[in-house]
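The freezer alarm interrupted the setup, so I double-checked each line after restarting. Inputs confirmed:
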Amino acid sequence: MIDRRMQHVPRLGRTPSRFRLVGTPIITVMLGSMATMAPIIAQSPVLPPFGLLALLAWRLLRPEMWRAWIALPLGLFDDMASGQPIGSAVFLWTIVLIAIDFVEQRLIWRDYWHDWLIAGLAIIFCTLGGMAFAGMTGGGMVRLMLVLPQICWSILLFPFVARQCAWIDRWRVMA
Amino acid sequence: MARPPSRRPGYNRKAQYGLFASYVVAVSGAALGLLMVLVAMFDPTGFSAIRAVASEVTAPLSTALNSMVSGIGTIDERIAAYWRAGSQNITLRRQVEADRNAIIEAKAVKQENLRLKKLLRLVDTDDSQVLAARLISSSSGSTRRFARLNAGRMQGVRPGMPVRAPEGLIGRVLFTSPNTAEVLLLTDTSNIVPVRRAQDNVPAISTGLGDGSVEVRALSAGRNPFHPGDVVVTSGIGGIYQPNIPVAVIVRVEGEISYGIPLANAARVEAVVVERPFEQVVTRQEGAAERQPADDAAGNEAAAAP
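Predicted 3D structure, all chains:
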């Protein structure tokens, strides 16, 4: 019998609960999507898509964890929280995950800079796609300059989010 | 990081089928998402029920956060105010002197108006306000400009109702859930407001630009009648907005188009007032029995407008 006081100390050979293993990444992405709950009445698209950043970080950190369909429920949740038309993130995020699957097969070795490049392209694709969808569903076309700052600091923020996800991941797998 | 081995199942048939099935699900899901967007093209508020669930759930937290951080948005303004305190004080004093005279004149005009209206037997009771509420969050990551109101259907808010602040127009209610409502802000690219110049009734149309400003196009042909500094107010045409709500001040004129800054900054206002659609206010004397259908009709019309 292990000493009661040693219960919360990480030990070799113990596995964390299934909820912690499976649920943590999903909850992180959902919390990222819920960043729009912040009491900011924005005058232009300023907030980086934290949900997308978390999704990309987890996907690139743990390639074996998710199949591409995970973007369907997570995208739907993001659509509900952001002001985008329902179905926008469902489509864009799934396309991104499928694309990452195929890129990964081509790349023999993937390092930090590859991750950032992939995430950057994904962010550009999702932001421009989201803009197009918002425009098609009654928003009208807006100038590209309007989303450029958002794209810029979303790409710059990705390494930070990836680092936080890695930090959470260490807690996740540690029993 | 090396390529993960799990994506290539090798000769294991079951794993191959599993991988294939996951892609089938993903692709068909993505197609379904695209279809939902296409449906939204023709019926922008069609899936509002799904979004209403999210707003209902998150509203209490947003309200709590909102009450904690109110005032952060004006921090830069306060610092700037300290910087120029002395000269600003003198200017403001002069302004107050000038305004006092204007107010006295306005009061006289109001009295005269009242008398003339009595003469014409026009009934003009001002009970158009439904309630006061707060904007608690917004679509800060999207190119659309929506804000969430912490009052909804149960408090009497209906789609199509105009929303204003003391400083000016904020927008109108797009759809409602039991306790929250989504407000289409004045600066959204799909929000079109019939306006007129405050001093001489030049009619125009204000459209949001999505970046915190609006573009104002005069309805008259010929050269652009607007100049920087002109104030535009709602004209009451279209039946949604009450006339004479301040909308924007023109800051830049470029050919046919004038650019304006809204007078009420949605990020700065403390509370907003939800009003009844203008047309309903005008035609309200018929009695309570007929109010309900008119209510619905106005709501539907407004919901179909964007």
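Quick read of the result. Confidence is low (pLDDT under 50) at residues 286-306 of chain B.
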